[in-house]
Design brief:
With 329 residues, the chain is an alpha/beta fold. It has 2 domains: 6-114 and 145-200, Spore Coat Polysaccharide Biosynthesis Protein SpsA, Chain A; 221-327. It has helices at residues 19-29, 51-61, 75-85, 104-110, 169-175, 187-196, 226-246, 251-275, 281-289, 303-327, and strands spanning 6-12, 38-45, 65-70, 90-93, 99-100, 119-121, 124-127, 133-137, 143-146, 165-168, 201-204, 212-215. Helix 6 runs parallel beside helix 7, helix 7 packs antiparallel against helix 8 (251-275) and helix 8 packs parallel to helix 10 (303-327). The termini are far apart. Mean pLDDT is 86; it is low at 218-222.
Length: 329
């Protein structure tokens, strides 16, 4: 087997409590893998806590763990630093307060089995601080998804996050793909959408188990405050949408990417209306009318997303936002 090298980029900021478990979980999952076949890039983003010292200790013990120290620029900037310094044929991004299961090693074993695969995607489980499961997302079965076919399997659109994917680095380099600096929510969606635009084959992994565990300390409702939705998430969705519009990609891929982004728009909206204050509803309506292209109907909508779309078509935005804010609470 032509074994490929994997680069694992871990942005670091104020995570001294979680960082050791994150790195140890990667080392444990890949304990049977020759260290020359993977590298862990710990990108310190100007953290004021003890995370940098922890990173340096790991680097002393493991030659394939590289500590990169930079001024604070946000998670997107830290990931971009990692991309520019990564030497693997494939690359993934792991949040430093998360961790991987030992099944993560199975994904690594598949690298090199099929050079045509541009991205591997696997399942994940959200847990709280006590490791209680909040939710799990996994594909029904291992499957290959051919982006050259007229219809692209919607299973590949389940997750927009980058931390559950292994990306072919050559595509990132050839297309100059980077995370948009300044975004603190949705930057994954934009990056993933741009990558899909240049994908020919994806491999979906997992049969009833997850390889990645993401820690959610508190409810993520703060992420969906109107200001965050307006200033971060929608700009990222818009960036991905316009990228698909302007890059002369096959029509089937363009349709899939736009549907993928719109589905995430509706998913966010069902949460935004729960926390949007009465005095902000008018601003939300105006904002949504300015982004009508993100309110079309894609077949891959969730049930809650379909409900939102249906209500807006029947009752209009004003009454729908009011009514759904009551239903979704």
């Amino acid at each position: 087997m032509n074994q490929k090298k994997l680069s694992i980029v871990v942005p670091i900021y104020n995570v001294e409590k979680y960082l050791p478990r994150c790195v140890d979980s990667i080392l444990s999952a890949l304990k049977d893998v020759d260290s020359s076949h993977y590298e862990i890039l710990l990108v310190n983003d100007g953290t004021p806590d003890g995370s940098l010292e922890i990173s340096k200790e790991f680097s002393k013990k493991h030659p394939n763990i590289i500590t990169i120290d930079k001024k604070n620029g946000g998670v997107s900037d830290a990931r971009n630093f990692g991309i520019e310094r990564a030497t693997g044929q494939y690359i993934t991004f792991i949040d430093s307060d998360d961790y991987v299961s030992n099944d993560f090693g199975r994904a690594f074993e598949l690298l090199g089995t099929d050079d045509a695969v541009d991205v591997f995607q696997f399942g994940y489980t959200s847990v709280d601080q006590d490791d209680n499961v909040i939710k799990s997302v996994s594909h029904k079965k291992d499957m290959a998804v051919d982006f050259t076919k007229k219809k692209i399997n919607k299973q590949v659109a389940l997750v927009g996050a980058v931390w559950c994917k292994l990306f072919k680095k050559q595509i990132i380099d050839d297309q100059g793909l980077r995370f948009t600096k300044g975004l603190s929510n949705g930057e994954d969606l934009e990056f993933t959408a741009k990558f899909w635009c240049h994908t020919k084959k994806a491999q979906l992994l997992t049969i009833n188990y997850s390889m990645y565990f993401c820690l959610r300390v508190d409810s993520n409702m703060n992420t969906y405050k109107f200001s965050h939705f307006r200033d971060h998430l929608v700009p990222s969705l818009t960036g991905g949408y316009k990228y698909a519009d302007s890059n002369n990609i096959p029509k089937n891929v363009e349709k899939f990417v736009k549907s993928f982004l719109i589905a995430h728009m509706y998913n966010a909206l069902t949460k935004v209306v729960r926390v949007t204050k009465k005095e902000q509803r008018k601003e939300l309506r105006v904002f949504l009318r300015q982004h009508k292209f993100l309110l079309k109907y894609p077949k891959i909508l969730s049930i809650s997303g379909k409900t939102f779309w249906f209500f807006t078509k029947i009752f209009g935005l004003k009454f729908s936002i009011f009514l759904l804010s009551k239903i979704y609470r």
